[in-house]
Amino acid sequence: MQDLYQQTKGIHDIKVYEVGSPFGLAKRVTQASAQSEEKISFAIIGGHGNSEVINFGKRLYKSDLNGGGAKRLSESFKPNAEIVLASCSVGEDNGIAQKISEQMSGLKIIASKNTATSIDMHVSYDNEGNPHFLPDFGGGEENATISYEEGVRT
Question: What is the mean pLDDT of residues 27-44?
Answer without folding.
Answer: 92
